[in-house]
């Protein structure tokens, strides 16, 4: 009998690729979505949909009881649902921590504890590295942002629940087809504009979404339990190296603008005000600015490597692959 996998956040950038891979791997695949979720990237007829209101105990119980009646057990859960940006700071805690806790407790209450629960956290739960040393799982976790703090709270919840079979994935910045955040950056470069905040050397790490999905399944299918697994493409870059690769892939020349942090802070406030009026979270906001200003997001991913993870995309080819997709979709001319 096929093992079943439930993926929350299935409608999102990363979740939609996890769903595709799960089907490819022959799992009976359940896409956990909300009533309001888009199914734009969830068109495969083999997808089973499960509506979950992660913030409502009663509704969760009903959904999970119906699932148990129909399918018996749940073999694996990949919990991808999360808020990465919001105008309302409280959303980070409500979704990334509180709903995660409610979901886990509902699985326990309804006798649906899986063989393995993969929690998709973030490098943000660690905070930036010290000096120029890559971030490792031995680092003291000191998140800079409300987002990072909410992910850390969820990780701490899993650490307290030793009887619950979880593993935590901490991806660095994820890029690839369908992503709308990197797109803003690439679009700006395609419009010949390269923006730096301060003139500091910033160390960065990245992972292509296909490689992250591979890492998630490696973690799920391995014996790894109760541990954090940092995931990148196993290299680190400076922000200038990143921009140069984008310029090369787009074949464009740019004008570089160096914006002092105080000026960027002023624009972040303005764009938050506009965002509040429009009801949309702007890419540049004060929380994100903390991440843009941090000098070291380089990472060492020893643990996932030891489980056999080998990324297929180095940054140069990953960027090209992503830009080709944006062009195909008409997002970039
Ligand atoms: N993208 C990155 O660079 C990156 C890096 C590290 C970690 N991560 C983590 O990876 C996960 C997925 O990120 P992503 O980039 O794919 O984000 P995304 O495209 O915004 O997708 C987020 C997903 O979470 C769902 N979600 C949001 N709020 C929810 C709620 N209250 N209840 C139930 N579902 C909710 C969304 O559902 P709707 O479609 O219904 O809104 C969507 O399916 C997140 O947990 C994020 O923290 C992302």
Question: Can you tag this structure with a few keywords?
Answer:
single chain; 333 residues; alpha/beta; Rossmann fold; seven-stranded parallel sheet; 11 helices; 16% strand; binds NADP nicotinamide-adenine-dinucleotide phosphate
What can you tell me about this protein's structure?
With 333 residues, this protein is an alpha/beta fold. The protein has a domain of 225 residues: NAD(P)-binding Rossmann-like Domain (Rossmann fold). The protein has 11 helices and 13 strands. The chain has a 7-stranded parallel beta sheet with strand order 3-2-1-4-5-6-11. The protein has a two-stranded parallel ribbon with strand order 7-10. A two-stranded parallel ribbon has the order 8-13. α2 crosses α3. The radius of gyration is 20 Å and the shape is globular. The chain binds NADP nicotinamide-adenine-dinucleotide phosphate. NADP nicotinamide-adenine-dinucleotide phosphate binds next to α1, α3 and β7.
